[in-house]
């Protein structure tokens, strides 16, 4: 097993630990010496200096969001991203469901998609095409778990009336100034928002607002609307960091998934 692959296994395991435990282990484990958290591909060197300057633009004048990013969504607990004045109010049935969840049942730990807005602790790529004129699609490519992807329709279409429930739902996007706004519906109810097990229902709608605040930083502000699980909508914010020169490596979670057998106890512990 390569140094990068071995480090990636450690990183994946850490992703399912409680935050205090993760921090304690991270201080004792020299993962960054071979591959920093979320590194992508055997050719990737440890993270160097972040790019400086303003966010770049495409020839059509739109912000250039393309590249390989790390972060941008919840991993441990979605509450960590709550905006000031926001709170998460679970309905009784959803709260009961969450309290009964076991860590080993986390779909992400079993190599299934993370859904929205959760991210795996691995890199992901944004593809914008074409760079001239108005793009018809935008894609998110994920290294983690099953090499999955999201397609964002940018051609002005609406959501279809006969949506089939899916892990990533049906996404339509548009620009509001320099912010990419993505509305997604049509989710199944199988993924968790985070490792502590925040649930959702098929009534879930997410509204993501991506803003590249500078050359190195992509801000993601997400509003969660799910009247089936939460008493009111709430908004969270997470930040992704650009990794120049990195590529996505082939990572097939099911081939060497050693996490689940070591995960014990209630979700988040």
Describe, in plain words, how this protein is organized in 3D.
- With 269 residues, the chain is α+β, with helices and mostly antiparallel strands.
- Helices cover 11% and strands 24% of the residues.
- It contains 3 helices and 9 strands.
- The two termini are 29 Å apart.
Précis, in short:
The protein is built from 3 helices and 9 strands.
Portion of residues within helices: 10-25%
* Tally of separate helices: 3
Order of SSEs: HHEHEEEEEEEE
Q: In total, how many beta strands?
A: 9
> Uncertain regions: pLDDT < 50 for 5+ in a row?
1-45
Structural class: alpha+beta
Shape: globular
- Major sheet details: 9 strands, mixed, barrel
Summarize the topology.
Blueprint: H1 3-14, H2 19-28, E1 67-71, H3 92-99, E2 124-129, E3 137-142, E4 149-153, E5 170-176, E6 179-185, E7 205-214, E8 217-225, E9 234-242
Parallel strand pairs: 4-5
Antiparallel strand pairs: 1-2, 1-9, 2-3, 3-4, 5-6, 6-7, 7-8, 8-9
Properties at a glance:
globular; alpha+beta; disordered N terminus; 269 residues
């Amino acid at each position: 097993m390569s140094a990068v692959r071995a480090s990636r296994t450690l990183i994946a395991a850490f992703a399912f630990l409680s935050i205090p435990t993760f921090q304690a282990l991270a201080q004792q484990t020299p993962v960054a010496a071979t591959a920093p958290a979320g590194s992508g591909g055997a050719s990737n060197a440890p993270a160097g200096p972040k790019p400086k300057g303003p966010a770049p633009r495409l020839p059509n004048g739109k912000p250039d969001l393309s590249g390989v990013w790390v972060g941008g969504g919840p991993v441990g607990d979605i509450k960590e991203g709550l905006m000031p004045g926001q709170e998460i109010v679970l309905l009784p049935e959803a709260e009961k469901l969450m309290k009964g969840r076991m860590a080993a049942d986390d779909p992400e730990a079993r190599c299934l998609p993370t859904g929205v807005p959760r991210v795996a602790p691995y890199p992901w790529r944004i593809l914008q095409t074409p760079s001239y004129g108005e793009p018809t699609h935008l894609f998110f490519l994920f290294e983690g778990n099953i090499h999955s992807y999201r397609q964002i329709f940018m051609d002005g279409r609406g959501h279809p009336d006969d949506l089939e429930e899916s892990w990533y739902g049906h996404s339509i996007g548009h620009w509001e100034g320099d912010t990419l706004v993505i509305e997604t519906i049509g989710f199944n109810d199988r993924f968790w928002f985070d490792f502590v097990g925040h649930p959702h229902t098929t009534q879930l709608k997410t509204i993501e607002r991506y803003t590249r605040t500078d050359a190195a930083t992509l801000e993601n502000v997400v509003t969660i609307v799910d009247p089936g699980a939460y008493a009111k909508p709430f908004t969270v914010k997470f930040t992704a960091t650009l990794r120049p020169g990195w590529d996505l490596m082939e990572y097939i979670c099911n081939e060497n998934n050693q996490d689940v057998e070591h995960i014990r106890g209630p979700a988040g512990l």
